[in-house]
Amino acid sequence: MVGKGRRVPGRIRLGDSKRNDRGCLILHGLGGGPYELEPLIGSIEKAGFRVAAPTLPGHDGPGPGMPASAWSEWAAAAESAFDQLVPDSADVSVLGFSTGGTLALRLASRRPVSRLVLIAPFLEIRHAGLLPVRPIRYLRHVARLIPSLPRRGPAVRDPEARRRAAAADRFRTFSLRAAASALELIEEVRPILPTIQTPALILQGIRDSVVEPRGAEFVLETLGARQKRLVLLPNSDHLVALDLDRDAVEREVLSFLLGD
Fold this sequence. Notes:
- This protein is α/β, with parallel strands linked by helices.
- The chain has one domain: Rossmann fold, CATH 3.40.50.1820.
- Helices cover 34% and strands 15% of the residues.
- Helix 2 crosses helix 3 (99-108), helix 3 (99-108) packs parallel to helix 6 (176-189) and helix 4 runs antiparallel to helix 6.
């Protein structure tokens, strides 16, 4: 097993002792951290789940510059965190946001994941279809010349949530090398989608300015699972767990994870 026994930065918390046979691994997005999924993480903990919310390699530095990192490192950390949950949780679900969603899909092809929650899964850059060539073909070359760019503000429409997310974000630059690696991860995951049988809930903000919302529809159509559902969120940008539809996100996620 890749990464078995390796400790992953982040946290593992026990839920209610009567319910901690259920575990949930939570994977954040590229350039972000677990803060992108608060207070959803807290709600899952309160529901009685044993929760692991690791900070992925390349995302745990002090800032202000975002270090370069690769998808193979993120995937190894995700597998290690999953393996740490399994001994005490017979039933382990995985929730992934953005690139964390892409990682969650790959993990489900390699581990016995009980349920998948995919929030704004990253399968394509927003408006990439308008470009004359696919981004993966040029981003690697650009990243060699320009390793990083100034970071844009949090992609969330709720003003107060945007302020809190900006305060939690330690990085003021965005690593193009890491972004290129995230595109390579997509190339790895797309062909295996039909082989993934894990029940899945997909949530996508219609106003997403980061990932292409059609990617969520592609996952719904291509995933091999019999039980799969897409929820479109009309008022949210990319950070849907923080944005204007966050209450609906919490309801949908908890209902799915609890099997209601």
